[in-house]
Amino acid sequence: MSAIHRALKTHFGFDQFRSQQQEDAVNAVIKGDRDVFVLMPTGAGKSLCYQLPALVASGITLVISPLIALIQDQVEHLKALNVPARSINSKLPPAERRQILADLESESPRLKLLYITPEMVASPSFQPCLSSLCARGLLAYLAVDEAHCVSQWGHDFRPDYLKLGDLRSRLQGVPCVALTATAPKRVQQDIERSLKLRSPLVFATPVFRKNLKYDVIFRDLLPDPYVHLLAFAKEALGGNTAEKGCGIVYCRTRESCEEVAHKLTKLGIPAKPYHAGLKVGDRTDSQTDWMTDKVPVIVATISFGMGVDKANVRFVVHWNLAKSLASYYQESGRAGRDGLPSSCRIYYSPKDRDQLNFLIRKEIGRKQEKRGSEKEQDKAPLMDFEAMVAFCEQEGCRHATISQFFGNPKPNCAGACDFCRDPKLVRAQLARAAALSTRTGPGQSAEPRGPFGFDPELYAGGRKGYGFERHDEEWGSEEDDSEKRKKVFGSLFRKQMSLRRASDVAKETFVPPDDDCMLRDASSQRIPRLTVKSREHCLSLLQECLTNHRGAAELSHSSDTLDEAVEIEHEIFRASKSANLYKASVLKRVSEMKKSAAASVAEEKRSESNEETATCSSSSQPLDGFTSASQVYSLKRKRVGAGFRGSSSLFQTAGDLLKNSQKETLAADKRPGDPICEEEEQVETGETLQMKSSKTTPADSSPIKAKTSTATPLSSPSKKLTKKQQKLAEAAKDMRRISQYFGKKQVDTAQMKTGSVISEPEEEASQNHSSSPNHTDLITKISTSTDVETSTGVLQQQSPSAEEMANRDGTSTNTEITADPAVQGEHHQSDAQRKSPKQSHENRSPSPPAKRSRVMKDTKRVTFDPVVQETQFDTVVNGDAAGTSRTPVTLKEAADIVVRCLDPFYKKGKFATKDLFKSFARFLSHLLTEGKTAYRGQVKMEAKSLIKSFFSRIQRCESETDWRHLKVEDR
Ligand SMILES: Nc1ncnc2c1ncn2[C@@H]1O[C@H](COP(=O)(O)OP(=O)(O)OP(=O)(O)O)[C@@H](O)[C@H]1O
Ligand SMILES: [Zn+2]
Fold it and tell me: Please, are residues 111 and 85 in contact by the beta-carbon 8 Å criterion?
């Protein structure tokens, strides 16, 4: 037995080296004439490559490691082996620190390994010690662990690692050992350069593993991806082998973990979910059951697998795309550790691709913004992600792609990937996918909602999972959990207490952002009672606005608009002091965008629409000859908020309104109609948003300008006061609704109204404008389904569909669609605050004025009345209200009815996927309206009976073929 083997046994208890690379690396380091670069995957035994030489050499080995936690782990491990290893770090008790320094300063220090962070090694306080060790020739090696941190191309770049180049220069004659897990070629080169490694000897584990079979399946092409997954899992697990196998399915979100696990179990393969949302006990159970082969499949977020070294993993599936090829290699590499044939599959979807692309770019932008400059290396995550995408979309050997990415030579795949096995099949799949994407249009795949949270830290790391944690997956220890529970309990307790005190809105427990949250500062709880969900709603509203107003030509880049929306949302978030202010500002921004778009469209169409304008706005006064889009497309009530002092904002509490009203009463006498004074006063303070009065200037037809528009003089204070008082009561009521709405997140479908009832303005319009957010837009948005849309007007084109709203909401139910906080909020707050004549319509809900209703012909003309809305859901879904059953409906309106009818079924889990729910809604809408004049009542009845008939035959809708035979006669 050689001396090195003896040392291996003596110090570490190992009989042999783990691999040839490990042994070779140890020998090279001991030889000491060259720098050494160790590239081995996590768990391959890299640490031994410097620890063993440190023990056989005389002197001290300085080990640079990026995290104190990692250092402590290593030191504890070595101490347990009786290896003289210590660390100097900021967490060290002073006595221990003095003891270590004293040893280092002694003539022959006992210490063999000194672990230190790059920050500490560069700190002035450590310099005398370092210089002394150096001068006395007591430094045996410089080991740089997690060396990829030195690379600005790596995900874990640490600026302090760059200083190691200088350190290296100072330690002339001290051999350097750099260690990292498998790194892309680009990163390897960066490490060598930055650490000034002198033609290092590289010891790298080849990335090619011939026992792993790689393939990629385009998920969107599958009739039922779950069935497909099941077949794959069954085949991979074999069943008749003596050795029991198991598998991992990686998903990005907790929801998909749950869903996939549920599906697989239901279809016949027991599977358990594993994610940060589970209670600690359940999570441990999942892991234990899987580790002990009680449950063959674990469906997990990427946190799972760190430290899990199970030999018989027969397959690793990525239900969602990994964020980089390096990550994918790492995660898929958990298959087949026993060397037996195993499979790695990606269920690829361009939706994933676009979502990730967006998130990565967003993250890059964020970094650059923070730094205030751009760097070439900022693009690294994007490049790594592109490598991942290329892996999926390429026509070529998957193994070769991986090897090339890591700078390895092309391996002999020998049919261990789908392309090498059957290139024709891969090409055919790509062709089908291309055809599908052409059919569905580029905008489809750019759906911004997606189950992923960007994690800039993702990179191959150490045992501690350094670089692997995701912001919401860092569940930590049991204690952390109990802390969390305490917090939750505390919050519940406070909630209950506030309920008892009859406080109007109970404080919500903050629900942290999901993986897919695209908001900036998503976890911030700075604004009380503002939920992540509400913010997401607002974000989607903003993005829809941007997207719609940009026109179809730019739809393919919806991530751009999303990007912009994210910025706008964040800007509003930062500037807002309360939830209401926030929502108000969002809505205001939405209205501004809509107005400017509508105004420009209206401008263009003005000549064409003169006729219609004359009819529709008979009682409206054109604004200096300008006819706004909202005037063209709907009839409006006049003077919402007329007489209220100006506010750019859309939300105001009843209390605020009362206060303002009182102030206003006083002020009105003093300075009636002093626009400048009013302008000053309308500056928002705290929770209070003051009303902005109607304007008569042409400028008003341009987007609302928050604090700059000129308020209208109060022409008749006494009369206004009376009206105001009435409206205050309404506002109070509506604010309650808003609060309830936001409190409950999803509520009250009955609040919304769609239809063709149009109320003509009753009040005399003293001002005319079209600048406020218009309800036609909003209602149309709610009742419109893009997929079934036959657009009849500008405003409809500008509106996102019900389905889109559902998609973005991530819940896909119409209840949620109609309960879009932003939309809802917009309605309610406009009760009190809008100045649009059309919107003033709402304000009179407590004592609805006599209305003349009429049915408009082609153009979808809808309006909003809270009183009517109270009964709307019943009217639309549950029963027919007089006068509406014979209302002809457009396809969009039919879709709205269908979605409402279907919604309860979706909620009960009667649809396997949201897409199915949507497809079925689409199918029914067409079925019920095509080739005939469809009436509201009839559509509703037919929809209900068709749905009933449908679900009387099947328990749950699993695929599109389920409704193949469904016809109108089926009901
Ligand atoms: N020759 C060997 N024989 C048996 N076990 C070994 C051998 N060398 C290392 N190990 C063990 O393998 C495990 C992983 O080793 P080590 O921590 O060095 O991995 P690593 O490659 O540094 O991983 P990481 O990337 O997490 O830092 C440790 O438990 C270590 O004790
Ligand atoms: Zn191949």
Answer: yes
- Ligand 2 centroid to Cα of residue 348, in Å, is 18
Give DSSP secondary structure letters for 902-927: HHHHHHTT-BSSHHHHHHHHHHHHHH
Which residue among 182, 204, 226 closes a domain?
Answer: 204
Task: Kindly identify the ligand whose nearest atom is closest to the C-alpha of 421.
Answer: 2
Tokens of 866: 């809270």
Tell me, yes or no, whether 219 and 195 share the same domain: no
**Within-domain flag for 64:** yes
Name the helix (H) or strand (E) containing 215: strand 212-218
Interval 496-523 mean pLDDT = 57
**Residue 410 CA: which ligand is closest?**
2
Burial, 560: exposed, middle or buried (Cβ in 10 Å; 0-12, 13-18, 19+)? Answer: middle
For residues 353 and 408, state if they share a domain: yes
Which residue type sits at 553?
A: A
Distance CA 38, CA 22 (A): 9
The size of the chain, in residues, is 971
Which domain range does residue 152 map to? Answer: 3-204
Nearest to 138 by CA among 164, 109, 117: 109
Contact 608, 753 (CB under 8 A): no
Identify whether the C-beta of residue 332 lies closer than 8 Å to the C-beta of residue 212: yes
pTM: 0.48
> What CATH number does residue 175 fall under?
3.40.50.300
714 lines ligand 1 (CB under 6 A): no
- pLDDT tens, 22-37? 999 999 999 999 999 9
Contact 25, 53 (CB under 8 A): no
Closest residue to atom 2 of ligand 1, CA basis: 18
Model confidence over 524-582: pLDDT tens digits? 888 888 888 888 888 888 887 787 766 433 333 445 677 788 888 888 998 888 888 88
480 C-beta neighbours (distance < 10 Å), count: 12
393 pLDDT band, cuts 50/70/90, is very high
Q: Which stretches within 468-578 are classed as H helix?
A: 478-500, 532-550, 558-575
CA distance 836 to 844: 13
CA of 417 to the centre of ligand 2 (A): 4
Ligand whose nearest atom lies closest to the CA of 460: 1
Give the count of domains, the chain: 4
Distance in angstroms (rounded) separating the CA atoms of residues 946 and 917: 14
42 Cβ closer than 6 Å to some ligand 1 atom: yes
Helices (H), 507-648: 532-550, 558-575, 579-616, 629-633
Please give the C-alpha separations between residue 307 and each of 43, 289, 303, in angstroms, as whole numbers.
Answer: 8, 16, 10
Per-residue pLDDT reduced to its tens digit, 255-288: 999 999 999 999 999 999 999 888 889 988 999 9
Nearest to 916 by CA among 447, 143, 225, 335: 225
Specify whether the CB–CB gap between 195 and 168 falls below 8 A. yes
Measured in Å, residue 329 CA sits from the centre of ligand 2 at 15
Question: Domain check: are 183 and 225 in the same one?
Answer: no
Angle between helices 532-550 and 802-809 (to 10 degrees): 140
Q: In what order do the strands lie in the sheet with 271-274?
A: 212-218, 342-348, 313-318, 246-250, 297-300, 271-274
Alpha-carbon distance 504 to 126, whole Å?
59
Burial of 555 (0-12, 13-18, 19+ CB in 10 A): middle
Q: Is the CB of 40 under 6 A from ligand 1?
A: yes
Q: What confidence category does residue 957 fall into, taking pLDDT thresholds of 50, 70 and 90?
A: confident
Asked whether the beta carbons of 667 and 717 are under 8 A apart, the reply is: no
pLDDT-above-70 percentage for the chain? 59
Whether the CB-CB separation of 247 and 297 falls below 8 Å is answered with yes
Q: What is the 3-state secondary structure (H, E, C) of 38-73?
A: EECCCCCCCCHHHHHHHHHCCCEEEEECCCHHHHHH
Verify whether ligand 1 is closer than 6 Å to residue 186 (CB atom): no
Any domain includes 845: no
